[in-house]
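ESCALATION

Customer reports they have been waiting on this structure for their group meeting. Please prioritize. Original submission:
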Amino acid sequence: MDEDQGEPEIGRIREAAEAADWAAVRDQLTERPESEDRTWLITAVARTANVENWIPQAVEAEPDSALPLLVAGARHVNWGWEARTGARAEHVSRDQFQVFHNRLRTAEKWLYEAAEREPQWVSPWYFLQMSGRGLQVGQTVARRRFEAAVRRHPHHLGAHQQQLQQLCDKWGGSHEEMHAFATQALRDAPAGSMLGQLVALAHIEQWLALDSGADAEYLGQPGITASLTEAAERSIWHEDFAYGQGWLQVYNTFAMAFSLTGDRDLAKLCFDGTNGIVTAFPWNYLDAADPAAAYRENRATAGR
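Update from on-call: job pushed to the front of the queue and completed.
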């Protein structure tokens, strides 16, 4: 499994974050325009342990800069979700929820300040989508945050992924809203867009929400394969597919979706496109402890 998703820059910025080297983190971030590419790099920093211990000093040292505020907010979002864990709500303690919400409120303060200082930046709104879901701001506010992100970057994959999660049944949406959003996003996007992943994710999310037996029955419907095939043809299989940040995750998602439907030949095409590189998401849905094992098992079934 490649935590850097085939992108050397992600590894470099993670190493700088682990070393508490704000100057190196800052320089790498400022080399990239405020776009989806920068969002991916900030996410790598936000997922790095102990950043919360040194980033406040960077905020104090650069009182007029939005960048340390953005990084601090992003880290507190991820730090908050780490406290909550990925368990279902009934298995999360009251103390865990309190820590979770406190960290998210701190994140929101920093992220809103960053957004005010740099009103054209998309990244603050991406992370505000994540904090908002944890704080249960509701569908209306969540939608406004998503719209704020896509006004700045219309086809931002991460922002669309977060809105898809918001529309899942488990977060107060519905299967119908989720699928409608995914389909519309794909059709509004240019040919070759990575947003085709949303269609595959929506089917995976509904499969996860169903009981055993009903989940297989759902994915066994001919219409599901047709839907996935259309999305892949407009995305990863299109001659103009955009190999931007996150493309490996998109391929892995289609590989998993076609594997679940039992379409081995189509799954094999997607596995071929991954070049043997595994991304933790979405395979962690099948094996949280060892996503690569889930990948290998399904790839073997597909005859790869």
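Sent to customer with the following note: The radius of gyration is 19 Å.
Escalation resolved.
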